[in-house]
Amino acid sequence: MFPRTVTHARGRTTIDRAPARVTVISTGQMDAALTVGLVPVGSTAGDGAGTVPAYLEEAFPASAAALEAVVELGGRTEPNLEALAALAPDLILVNAAGQDTGQLHTTLSAIAPTVVTRGTGLYWKQDFQLLADALGRREQAQDWLAGHHERAAALGSRFTDAPTVSFLRKNGDRVRVFGVASFSGSVAEDAGLPRPQVQSFTDDTSRDISLEELPLADGDYLFYSAQGGDEAEFTSLPLWPTIPVVGAGRAVEVDDDTFYLNAGPTAARRVLDQLETTLAT
Predict the structure, then answer these.
(1) Is residue 99 part of a domain?
(2) How many independent structural domains does the chain possess?
(3) Is 93 within 8 Å of 115 (Cβ atoms)?
(4) Which tens digit of pLDDT belongs to each residue from 106-140?
(5) Domain extent for 126
(6) pTM of the full predicted structure?
């Protein structure tokens, strides 16, 4: 199985032996590594999230001690390279979204073999499989994805006329609705759940809307979050109670980490959990 050469977003990397000391630079990669049974030794902190998001601590209680020992490596766009090198990693994982991975890949590759995934919610399944391949755990990822698709299809099969689901997030002054190609949107698509017409776009993960355009978030069900977890960021807005889905009592506050920040398999499982729980009521 090793040595093995994997093809990734910045070329090809040869990994001589099964990685044991892995560092992750990008959001979602901690999730993916844990899902196939490996706890990284170091990780950067995602925007608005901790080094180890709370949902991963909850999902992997048996790894609590190892997760507590994960070394923080700064922010994902400017990782602490000295701290990273001091961990003597045998594999570094980073994604190409939102940063200049050309120079970063060269720098990281001088420390240890480096694999670059594509990033963003659109590519979470491909990135999961690539990461698992680099770890020598490809079959585990394939089995997990098969189970995910089976479970998502079972949810969709419950409906003869499936309800539309809407996704909305606020971080600071920025308010966005999320399309089919977003992370949470892809999980809904796996379940065959339709989207409101204004959220059926596939050319981007999200679109910014103004506060006056909040009614664009309407649907049969609305799943919303605000960075930092303050529901009042939405509920205090003058137009909030005028949105039909809010008036119908079908607007659900969700975990920001799992729906909008960490595009990984365990987050996808949590999104599907939420969809199942909400649509079953």
Answers:
(1) yes
(2) 2
(3) yes
(4) 899 999 999 999 988 889 999 999 999 999 999 99
(5) 4-136
(6) 0.95
Structure tokens at 201: 């776009």
Long-range (24+ apart) CB contacts under 8 A made by 13-17 are 13/109, 13/113, 13/114, 13/115, 13/134, 14/113, 15/90, 15/91, 15/113, 15/115, 15/134, 16/113, 17/90
The tokens describing 197, both together, are 């017409």
CATH number (domain holding residue 240): 3.40.50.1980
Residues with Cβ < 8 Å from 72, sequence gap 6 or more? 42, 43, 44, 45, 51, 83
Cα(35)–Cα(130) distance, rounded to whole angstroms?
Answer: 13
- Using one digit for the tens of pLDDT, what is the confidence trace for 136-194? 999 999 999 999 999 999 999 999 999 999 999 999 999 999 999 999 999 999 999 99
According to DSSP, residue 70 is labeled P
Categorise residue 158: left if φ over 0, alpha if ψ from -120 to 50, beta otherwise: alpha
Minimal CA–CA distance to 220: which of 250, 265, 253, 258? Answer: 250
Q: Which residue's structure tokens are 């049974």?
A: 37
